């Protein structure tokens, strides 16, 4: 146990409290009677509010101070000691606050959105556990402990995506997410084994000083990256994320903003020092493919949540590209800004869905409220939601005066630095990222236009009203944080308080990049307006190049077949062998029992009987009767005569 820096009791208390409140929410949610299920949502939200306040204190006390580290022995194996610990620096303290804060807002929003849901206790319990698991990844001081929480995040996401498990699509989506993530996690585990084999430590701080073998370290980092590919939905393990949209919308907001998919990017930034140059090149290429694939697929979607899901794929790809280009700061800045505006977009989409569902119940008019082709003209009926959509959508598109403009500018600047001069394959990555930024503007504002500005279609017959205040308040907070002011005083310079304190920023004059980026976005806005009524009908794009079918055929199906085969082998061969062994033991037991009774006991009883008979026989010599004495004397004489004659 050691500490790099001495912190106050308040810091220690708030750190424990920030982690304990979501876990307490998970536990208490199961003990409240269904009759008072509304208490569950209120109590869970209140506990997350306390957790947010505690994490704010942790952030305040840890910011720009030496890292806080706490380790204790977890277990020992084969002479090696494995520790569990906490490591808090600027990045982890900020991420802890964002995870807990966004989760609180999602909890609060869910009070209104999930009201009346039959499984509300299970929902809030798993929401709290999901938050706790993500917090564990953020504060973990070693990779083994990170892997444990990594798996807990996977389990809780499985439960939340399949919350409405009675719907076949929800049950299928949760299963797909679980299976695909296990594929990536297998690689993660191999990477951890290689790290242990060469460093005999999982401690993140200690690994920074580990002697590096380039070949093995490349293999180890690529193994870890496999887990990141699964968790952060990178190519080719991305198909589970759009399918997960069948879960409750607040869950989608939390998964896409600050928890599950963010975990991979956060971990990659945290162990960036392990990645060799060849490994980083692979990271950049994978991120680029994911970003492009997500952006072009979003163009063809009609489901409001799937548009946002594919946009998340694209934005995660941009973060991974930045990490591959050697700029964890740019990736983290975009991760932090994205957490707020993407959560806001999902909650705003949920507000549209919720309001239309309420109106449908009143008017008995039914249509798919998530299909933007059925919507239109909602600006007048949902003016607040429209404003929220515009602000958060502008941040996603990277418009000036938004947080998204700053973080995308940081990524573009990092890529310009990485590329240098001349022509190389890195220039293709830069061009692809510029195209992704352009397409993001197009599909974002096309979506907003079709929902709020287009002519009324199926919604014309409905009496639509804004969602309740408990849903509007979180949206307003997230929209406010989607502006530039929270990240940099200068709306055109990302070198603000956050960027300069989450890593070693390389000096670079980004003025020309900012100007070019602003012009590029304005051009994209023009294209978005001109093509606002255009519907991209390509089945290839609508189905994300059919990668889901490829994964089903070559990943999910073999895994399920292997599972069925092992189950069959277990039932027929292993269970058969165990049963045969049990029957054999039973037969042997019966045989040994019979042998014991018939032979062993018989022999013992026979010896005893013989001894008893012999004793009775010899006792008769001294029986006290004259007749017996005469008989035995005569018998002895006869025997003697016969022996003499012979």
TrEMBL record:
Coiled coil: none
Bilayer topology annotation: Multi-pass membrane protein
Native organism: Chryseolinea serpens
Protein name: NADH-quinone oxidoreductase subunit L
Regions crossing the membrane: 7-32, 38-60, 94-116, 123-141, 147-167, 179-199, 219-241, 253-273, 279-300, 307-325, 331-353, 382-407, 427-449, 469-489, 509-530, 626-645
Pfam family, one: Proton_antipo_M
Entry keyword annotation includes Plastid: no
Gene3D superfamilies, per database record: 1.20.5.2700
Subcellular location: Endomembrane system; Membrane
Sorted UniProt keywords: Membrane, Transmembrane, Transmembrane helix
PANTHER family found in the cross-reference section: NADH-UBIQUINONE OXIDOREDUCTASE CHAIN 5
InterPro entries membership: NADHpl_OxRdtase_5_subgr, ND/Mrp_TM, NU5C-like, Proton_antipo_N
Residue ranges of every copy of the NADH-Ubiquinone oxidoreductase (complex I) chain 5 N-terminal domain listed in the record: 74-124
């Amino acid at each position: 146990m050691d500490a790099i820096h001495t912190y106050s009791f308040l810091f220690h208390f708030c750190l424990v409290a920030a982690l304990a409140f979501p876990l307490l929410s998970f536990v208490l949610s199961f003990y409240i009677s269904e009759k008072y299920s509304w208490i569950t949502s209120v109590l869970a939200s209140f506990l997350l509010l306390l957790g947010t306040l505690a994490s704010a204190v942790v952030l305040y006390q840890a910011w720009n101070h030496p890292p806080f580290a706490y380790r204790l022995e977890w277990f020992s194996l084969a002479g090696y000691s494995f520790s569990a610990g906490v490591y808090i620096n600027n990045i982890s303290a900020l991420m802890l606050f964002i995870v807990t804060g966004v989760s609180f807002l999602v909890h609060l929003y869910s009070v209104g959105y999930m009201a009346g849901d039959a499984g509300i206790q299970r929902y809030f319990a798993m929401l709290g556990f999901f938050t706790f698991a993500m917090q564990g990844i953020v504060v973990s001081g070693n990779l083994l402990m990170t892997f444990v929480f990594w798996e807990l995040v996977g389990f809780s996401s499985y439960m939340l995506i399949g919350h409405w498990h009675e719907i076949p699509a929800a049950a299928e989506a949760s299963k797909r997410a679980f299976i695909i993530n296990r594929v990536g996690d297998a690689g993660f585990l191999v990477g951890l084994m290689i790290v242990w084999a060469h460093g005999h430590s999982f401690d993140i701080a200690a690994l920074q000083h580990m002697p590096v073998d380039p070949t093995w370290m490349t293999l180890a980092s690529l193994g870890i990256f496999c887990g990141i590919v699964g968790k952060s939905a990178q190519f080719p393990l991305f198909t589970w994320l759009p399918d997960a949209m069948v879960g409750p919308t607040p869950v989608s907001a939390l998964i896409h903003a600050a928890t599950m998919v963010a975990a991979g990017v956060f971990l990659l930034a945290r162990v960036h020092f392990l990645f060799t140059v060849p490994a980083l090149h692979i990271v950049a290429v994978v991120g680029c493919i994911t970003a492009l694939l997500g952006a072009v697929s979003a163009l063809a979607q009609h489901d409001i949540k799937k548009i946002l899901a594919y946009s998340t794929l694209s934005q995660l790809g941009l973060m991974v590209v930045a990490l591959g280009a050697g700029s964890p700061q740019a990736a983290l800045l975009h991760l932090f800004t994205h957490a707020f505006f993407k959560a806001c977009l999902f909650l705003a989409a949920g507000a549209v869905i919720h309001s239309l569902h309420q109106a449908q119940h009143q008017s008995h008019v039914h249509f798919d409220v998530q299909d933007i082709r059925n919507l239109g003209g909602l600006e007048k009926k949902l003016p607040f939601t429209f404003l929220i959509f515009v602000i958060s959508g502008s941040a996603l598109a990277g418009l000036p005066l938004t947080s998204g403009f700053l973080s995308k500018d940081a990524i573009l600047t990092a890529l310009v630095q990485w590329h240098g001069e001349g022509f190389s394959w890195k220039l293709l990555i830069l061009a692809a990222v510029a195209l992704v930024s352009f397409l993001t503007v197009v599909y974002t504002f096309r979506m907003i236009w079709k929902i709020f500005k287009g002519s009324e279609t199926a919604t014309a017959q409905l009496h639509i009203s804004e969602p309740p205040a408990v849903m509007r308040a979180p949206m307003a907070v997230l929209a406010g944080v989607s502006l530039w002011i929270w990240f940099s005083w200068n709306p055109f310079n990302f070198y603000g308080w956050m960027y300069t304190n989450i890593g070693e920023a390389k000096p670079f004059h980004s003025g020309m990049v900012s100007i070019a980026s602003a012009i590029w976005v304005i051009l994209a806005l023009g294209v978005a307006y001109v093509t606002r009524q255009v519907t991209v009908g390509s089945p290839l794009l609508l189905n994300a190049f059919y990668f889901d079918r490829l994964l089903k055929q070559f990943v999910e199906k073999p895994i399920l077949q292997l599972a069925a085969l092992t189950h069959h082998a277990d039932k027929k061969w292993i269970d058969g062998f165990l049963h045969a062994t049990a029957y054999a033991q039973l037969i042997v037991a019966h045989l040994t029992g019979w042998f014991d009774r018939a032979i062993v006991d018989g022999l013992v009883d026979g010896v005893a009987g013989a001894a008893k008979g012999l004793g009775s026989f010899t006792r008769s010599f001294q029986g006290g009767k004259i007749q017996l004495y005469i008989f035995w004397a005569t018998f002895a004489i006869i025997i003697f005569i016969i022996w003499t004659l012979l």
